[in-house]
Amino acid sequence: MSSVIVSAQSGNQGRSDLNAEDAEAVAQLIKSQYGMGKAVYLTRIAEQLSLSFASQDQMHTHWQQALQEAVPSPHNMSQINTHALMAQILIRYSNGMTLNRWRQVDLGTFKSLPHLNERLSNSQKFYVWLNLNHYWQTILKRLASQGSTAWLGITELPKAKHKILNAESQLHKTLDFVVPLNAKIPPSDQDHTLVDKITDFSHRWSSWTPLSAVFLRMSLHQNRKIWLAWAYDWIEVYQRIELSPHLLTAEEQQALQKAILASQSLWSSQQAIIEARDKNLFLLLQRIFEQLPAKFKNPDHFDAQLNNQILALAIGLNDPDNYFTQPLRTHIQKNLEVCLNLSTHIPPNPEQPIADHQFESCLQDFIDWAQIHAFDTGMAGQLTVLDSPVSMARVLDMADPQIINYLPAQAVEDQRCLDQFSLKPNPLEWLLAVESLNWLHDRWPGLMAEKPPTQADIESILKTGSDLYQYPDCFQPDSVLRSQFTRLEQKWTTLKQAIRLYIKEYRDTHMATGSDIDFFQNTDQLTDAVPDNLVISACDVNTACGANIKLKPDNKILQLFPNHLKIAQQLKLGDLSICYDNVNWQERQSLPTQLNNKKIANYEGQLQITLVGKFKDHIVFEQALETSQRYIYLFAENNPTVLDMDCPLPVIGQQITTSLDRGTFGLLPNRLTFLAAQKVDVNNIIKHHWPQWQNSINVSQVHIVDPMDSVKPLVNETFILHANTVQQQIYRKLTTSNPARIYDSALSNAVFEYLTENRRLKATVETLFPSTYHKNAPIRSALTGDQAILNLAFFKHAYETQLNLMDMMTRGDALIEQHKPAWFNQQRRADDDFLQPSLVQFEKRFTRPEIVRPETPKASTEVVPTSAANDN
């Protein structure tokens, strides 16, 4: 392009004769050479300099500095139109305001371009960019009267590409332009191509209406796949059409109907993505698509329920009927309705102007509403650190706007930081007060001109709105939200521990002592539990061969039982018992004694016992255990009868008389007498070998006498009964949490504290950082998506679908991990543009242009994400 803006550092090389008639060409030149953000920034600089006392050289220097600034272009340009939202509230919840009364009074004049030190919202930047023609007309007219425009450095101007069209055709031509636009854009370089097309299209009118601007903005959001912003654009379209005093022409209706049908199809195709962001938004916008055509047929169409859904989305007010009828608002509501009705013309009576003292009283009531009543403790809370989760829960039961001062007090850990806070007003009440002032201004412009609010009141109201979402340096959104999420994560860990503890307590109460049943596996689970006080003793003293030792089994011995019987014992369906039987000596042989007397002998063998396992006194298994070591267990008469005895108890103590092989020559008796004796203690042998026997148990070699398979159905039935019972008990606590029950168990307390923390996190984002809530898609998904961080709805859905409790906790862990990056890895924008629509309306009515002294221009300090991923 041959047309240029000179960027020389010295000298005024541009044309000096530019005037208001060149505004269109100047705006076209700036739009073509610079991005949206830079074009608006340069226009604001020119506005500021044209209002200053700066010399030509000073203006040239400042302008050249501005040309070198790097200014990002806005990405997400959506907004909550608080001006329209408050109108809908006044119509619905006040006796004195109607749709037609609002339409007859609300004005839509242009607002002068904000000064450089005022922050423009992204939506405002886009609207200013569309209307650069309008603003440059004012700037160039002013500069022409000052003598020269050379400092702008514009050497030549482009020729107009399009003939300026009449304003009446703007809306339907805009709709005809945007509906097929995205389908024609190639996949590569898509956004750049679309911006170029919109830039070219924007030159066809010298000024743009807000409604047409929304449709162009919507096209960019659709192209960038910023679906939250796209939905908010449609909400604003709905509000503007509802409140507009102008009916759509047949041509506009037809074009809008095409846009609605195309958008409905697109919206349906994106349902999964939308519900991942906000599970309620999809149906809300579907309803808007359905209701918009009704406004073509009936201009007075007003869907109160739909408007309440929009209010809940925008402000977090889920029960407006209760909020607007609460006793705390009685005085506010009474004053509002008196003033509205004093201003009402009732045909056929001639309209009587409101009396001076009545007007002054209404004006003061609305000012007090904004500056006093909106700050009342009952309406906005106080900067008080609450002492318990119960107190916090009670606060959270109130509407979000009513707790704006409680929330930061709970998030701040350092009292010195809290001391830096000042009380903030209830944002909903402040907005209603400001919009009531705007309405009063438009209803009685003559009286307002004669008896305006004091400059101090105007500045105070503006400062309150500008500062409402500004916080001390010690309270930065990124660190605050990270801290709040970490607290929620800790509460979730505590809740999981409480669930496991509750399961253990249930098992200790309803299962056999020592049970280790896992209710979240099936009945073939392996168990290591050993029945409490289980002792192995002799089955029968007559077959114990003198053994009477009591043995303590470990879990290895218990493995000899079939698994279902071990589970049955823990379910208290019957007792397991083990005894030993048939204590005897195996592999026996006789050995000579030291006396070399063949009539006596020592007997050697290996001790064997048989373990007998029983369930309800029914023998289940038998398992022989034998010592690997041989023992001399008996001294007795050497004969086969003794050797054949596997238990020598019958011969112990018997007298053995033998003759000597060699005589004593009559000096002594020729015989010896012995007593048969047990050489070892079988109890000691069993005790010694017991650890070895337990460790060498081979389950595959056990002799199962009766597996008692008939018990299995009862085991399964009882197991399922207990598993269902404990899970139902836990789910009831998860889904019916309330302060009255938090002390009945550790689980109830943990559930209550987690859910309270979850509610506090959502309220903190929604109330203290509304732009983050409405524009940061990952955080929005974490709070309101169909896969949001687990909350009460999550627990109820898990219960209704009978999700296994362990699976529920695993799913909860996965959701926490899934959403963690949203709180730790995102760079957030400032949250000071939420009130901008209403601030703009107030400023254009109550502020007067001021002369601005020259100062060094500064680029916008807006925080811009390094990636657009936050907005998608």
Which secondary structure elements does this structure contain, and how are they paired or packed?
Layout: H1 23-33, H2 36-50, H3 56-68, H4 82-93, H5 99-105, H6 122-130, H7 132-146, H8 170-178, H9 181-184, H10 190-202, H11 210-223, H12 227-243, H13 250-269, H14 271-277, H15 281-297, H16 304-315, H17 320-324, H18 330-342, H19 356-371, H20 377-380, H21 389-396, H22 406-411, H23 415-418, H24 427-443, H25 445-450, H26 455-467, H27 477-510, E1 537-538, H28 555-558, H29 563-570, E2 576-591, E3 600-615, E4 618-626, E5 631-637, H30 640-644, E6 655-659, E7 671-675, E8 677-678, H31 682-695, E9 703-704, H32 712-735, H33 746-768, H34 770-775, H35 777-784, H36 792-800, H37 805-824, H38 836-846
Parallel strand pairs: 1-2
Antiparallel strand pairs: 2-3, 3-4, 3-5, 4-9, 5-8, 6-7
Low-confidence stretches: 850-869
Q: Indicate the proportion of strand residues.
A: 5-15%
Largest sheet: 7 strands, mixed
The averaged pLDDT comes out at: 88
Q: Helix share of residues? A: 40-55%
Query: How would the global form be characterised?
Result: elongated
Query: Structural class given helices, strands, pairing?
Result: alpha+beta
Radius of gyration: 44 Å
**End-to-end distance:** 35 Å
Number of helices: 38
Total E-strand runs: 9
